[in-house]
Amino acid sequence: MSDQLRALMEDAEAEGRGLLFLSPHLDDAVLSCGALLSTLGRRLPITVATVFSAAAPPPHTRAACTYLRQCAATGALDLYDERRREDIEVLAGLGVEHVHLGITDALFRQRQVGRTLTRIGRVVPEVVHRYPTFRLDIDRGRVSRGDRALLELLHHEVRTLAERIDAAVVLSPVGVGRHVDHLLTRSLGERHRTRVHYSDFPYDRRHEPDPTYLSAHRLTRITWDEGIHRRPDLIRAYRTQADALFPTGDIPATPETYYLPPWRAAAS
């Protein structure tokens, strides 16, 4: 079933054009597309643009503090400095360019509030954050109204980047698990006609993609397994995240899943 995707990449290579992977966070592109990236990284120009690549100083919500403990991190800013270094190192090893757009991760994204709420927020940080909880907000796919203006700014930035690198295809997550940052990144890919969605690993081990979304966009599921044996080691190179994501140390080398819209599925 990878023939359709292979033909798409061969077309881009023949035309001397690039690929743009949109990654919600500083590991998602490799988590979900590591095999594809390792296969194509030195054959054609590839850029991975990570959207939510920054943290913010305290005070932090309980959800953010829990995440920092899972990563054995003493501070969010230092952790994200290290995460960016990891990402640069892994992608450079694949022959892939990186762009960090510098938007704050949902765990740390704050609202614009007045002085009174700012003072309260020093004691109860949840009141000044766009996503006060993980389980009831971030993980439910409830995109904050405050992020709509942000999305428009990002659309312009991504369009400019795609034009600059002459991207033949833009790849973005399909949004398995409904994490708000993944849904926002999916929206950034939707405006590009020549787009492909990738399944969000490892969230797709526990959740299925939204069938309504797949049907509405007439997406065709395909798999890719070339180079899949290399993906576990690539994931382990994200040292700050690997243990929290895979506590047993077992990273399955299962085929990657991609979703093609009708413009390509029909042509193939």
UniProtKB/TrEMBL annotation:
Instruction: List the Pfam families.
Output: PIG-L (PF02585)
**Secretion signal, residue range per the UniProt entry:** none
Provide the alphabetized UniProt keywords.
Zinc
Tell whether Repeat is among the UniProt keywords.
no
GO BP, one annotated term: glycoside metabolic process
Q: Which SUPFAM superfamilies match?
A: LmbE-like (SSF102588)
Q: What is this protein called?
A: GlcNAc-PI de-N-acetylase
Q: What is the native source organism of this protein?
A: Geodermatophilus africanus
Organism taxonomic ancestry: Bacteria, Bacillati, Actinomycetota, Actinomycetes, Geodermatophilales
